[in-house]
## 1
Amino acid sequence: MFMNTLEDIMLLQKDRYPDRVLPWIQTVLSEEVLHLGGTGTEGIFRVPGDIDEVNALKARVDQWSLPVGCSDPHVPASLLKLWYRELHESLIPPEFYERCVENYTNKEVAIDIVNNLPRINRLVLCYLIRFLQSDDPTVIFENTRKEMGFMRTLVMHLDTSFMEGVI
């Protein structure tokens, strides 16, 4: 399921899950993050899960086994990020990239781009966005605000002159 195209992933799961329109791994890992309280976990997609647990979970889902016995939401979140990263072709195909960069603040163009993606890419992206949305947006915004505020403070005030000449 890793390092494949979305089309190949859908073909791989066709016999096992003929009625699914989304990749099994995407929905299972997303649901596991939610089940383990990921929406209230600070840094859920920033802090990595234990590498041994992530690898064990990867081995399980590669065999079509559901996650069991995991108590840390960072583990399925890390594996979910890995799955997105290792897609053989980007979720946003290269032919859309320039238009995305040029119009990153234009919501109408952004929505038009999404609506013109290949069907499976659009479905997977919309599922991801819906997953990142929360019934209580303050959860996402508050965690993001704290994390970005910390980075902004460091960017503005941390003396990094000691890094001069370090390669």
## 2
Amino acid sequence: MGFNTVNQLHVNESKRHELIDARKSGTALIWAVFLFSIFVNLLMLTGPLFMLQVYDRVLGSRSEETLAALFVLVGFLYFFMGLLDYARGRIMARYGANFQTSLDRTIFEARLSRIPDGSQSKGAELKDLESIQTLTASPVFLALFDLPWSPLFLFAIFVLHPMLGWTACAGGAVLVVIAVLNQFLTVRKTQRANVTSFQAQSLAAQAEHARDVVQSQGMRHAVSERWHKKQSAALDDRINAADWVGSFTTSSKAFRLFLQSAILAVGAYFVLQGELTGGAMIAASILLGRALAPIEQCLGQWQVFQRSRQAWSSLDALLSATPKAKPLTALPRPKAQILVRKLVVVPPGGSAPTLKNLNFGVNPGHALGVIGRSGSGKSSLAKALLGIWPSASGEIRLGGAELDQYDPDKLGQYIGYLPQSVALLPGTVAENIARMSANVDGDAVVAAAKRANAHDMILTLPNGYDTQLDGDQSHLSGGQKQRVALARALFGDPVILILDEPNSALDAEGSQALNQTIREFKTEGKAVIIMSHRPQAIAECDTLLVLDQGTVVSFGPRDEVMKAQLKNADQIKRNLNAQAVAK
């Protein structure tokens, strides 16, 4: 059985039910709306009954008192109906808000916990959750509560005259057919329009992110042309989908207007035959409008239902792909020791392992350097040691316990991480160093910055530690961002420090400061793991691990490994020279 199959089985076994639970949590509100809908729809009969009384009683008796009494009664009933309708709308708005509130943090954390495999949408799930909330708070959702009452209004039309009832039923059947055709013939077109539009937006975002490269390399016109083609394709798909939806919507509207006239014509015929009164004819027209209004409203807003349905599927897929964390027993602060045995790692979405049968360890007070060519597996190892990528087999132990025995947030407090591509979040410098904690401990922040030799640099910023960082931190150099990120890694006194190409953006002075930080960290009995191919980065390493295509080539004391590597390099060079001379 392949690694992907095993992972998929694990996901399926861990399927989550937060969506259903959130929906069920508002059951009481739904029942309240259902109860209010009963009275609202019964009060919808006020108009037809008033029409019957006016035409058949008031006009016949010419009684002004009766008219006044009926008018006052109708005014009261309509006022009461308006209150109930307003109340159920407010209840549904709160139901949608509660639904979103109960899930927004879960969805956000699931997005952060999800292992990217290149197939997921880029952060659209929060918009999906908002789409569902918008639907529940919209009038079209209330139309679903009114829809079951359409048969009642049709029955009332039958009571007035059977032929009027059959006319209304035939018209309703045609509208239902239009709605079904609308669903089956437009859903794929709408989905395709959404996909092409998302592709165009993604290209625009990527081009904006790489604006320096695009402008400096003369790529602006070429990228703009490519985006324009995608945008034009998206626009064509949207117009095509809108044309189909519009054709069904206008057909529905035109047919309903025709049906309104048709039932008046049928009613007028029976009035002429003496089988129906004028009041009943007008009442039948009003009842028909009430019976068909929910159908037409649902049909006209069908795209809203489609988007919400797609949003539900997207959220369900996200939650299913990120199994819910189980409660774990809190472990004590671990010893600064990493032990890796028979580790195999398969990248998310891949099938071939990038790390194969790795065995090594790092003891307290020691630093391990992981070196190798690009693509040898250094960054994959860093992500595995951090618990970001799960292991396909083997184990990684921190202080004697496997990584999955630690709560992820607690594990993050024990391991400091400096990634190869530094990412700082919107907020102050202090908040970033404090890992976006709600209560920033100023003393701990300054202490971490001093350990990272970043304190003096931070003081030169416009507002020091209170300098606001925007989305791209354009006012910080690469070296400054790397120092702030190193301070963040050191915040909270971690026991393990993992550095991935830590001096890629540092100058000579910055590299010396980094080595001093590593020395002090080791002196405190902590452990350091450095992924790099630069000699300056491994100056403080005690042992070296050489990777090549995901396997261990050499592991041992730094100087011995370096000598062996140089000897192998010299031997390869001599062999190449000998081959050249022979040729």
